[in-house]
Amino acid sequence: MSANATTLNSGSKGSAAHEESSRQALIKGAKVINAKGHDVLDAEGKAVNAKAAVKHHEEKSPDLLKVHSSLVMKYIVFLFGLFCVYCLDVLLFGATAEYVASLISGNWIIVLLAKYGVPLFFLGVEVLCSVKMIEAREAHEMRQQNEEMPRYGW
Fold first, then answer.
1. How far from the centroid of its chain's Cα atoms is residue 76's Cα?
2. In contact, 93 and 126? CB cutoff 8 Å
3. CA angle, 123 as apex, 127 and 111 as ends, to 5°?
4. In 10 A of CB 89, how many CB atoms?
5. CA distances from 152 to 140, 141, 149 (A)
6. What is residue 77's DSSP assignment?
7. How open is the CA angle 80-108-98, to the nearest 5 degrees?
8. CA distance 6 to 17
9. N or C: the chain end with fewer CB closer than 10 Å?
10. Nearest to residue 111, comparing CAs of 103, 120, 102?
11. Distance CA 129, CA 108 (A)
12. Is the pTM of this model over 0.70?
């Protein structure tokens, strides 16, 4: 009976076409599964490579791992202060810059750039002034220390 059933299934054209389409569907499904599997394996490989690169960098420069939390907090406070000063500059200079830019050009992109760019420029000037003041204070302190030290000349 099995030989008879085999000859019946293989003999008809509808059955062969059905088997071929079923085989093609299985191949297509396998390709999709393999593509997703390759994506997962590639992602795992990239994660392993990134982890190895980070470990190598940590071994190469261990002093970077020794950053004290007070120093990190100091810079976070500095960044928060810069953000607050920028917001204050936007409030003080943004509307005026926006008004002048709208009178001059009327282009909305230039108006937005003026509203937020001019305060950013003022923030840069303020930071530059503070850096120069710190440099001048340190230079003055160094001069005072050098003058207080006794000098013995020939």
1. 17
2. no
3. 160
4. 20
5. 22, 21, 10
6. H
7. 55
8. 15
9. C
10. 102
11. 32
12. no
To which residue do tokens 């000349």 refer? 153
| Rg for the chain, CA atoms, rounded | 36
Position of tokens 């750039």? 113
Contact 114, 98 (CB under 8 A): yes
- Give the three-class secondary structure for 12: coil
pLDDT per residue of the chain (154 residues) written in tens, 0 to 9: 444 444 444 455 568 888 888 888 888 877 777 766 666 667 777 888 888 888 888 788 777 667 778 888 999 999 999 999 999 999 999 999 999 999 999 899 999 999 999 999 999 999 999 999 999 999 888 888 877 666 555 5
Number of helices (H), then strands (E), belonging to the chain: the values are 5, 0
Cβ-count burial 97-124 (b if 16+ within 10 Å, e if not): bbeebeeeeeeeeebebbbeebbeebbe
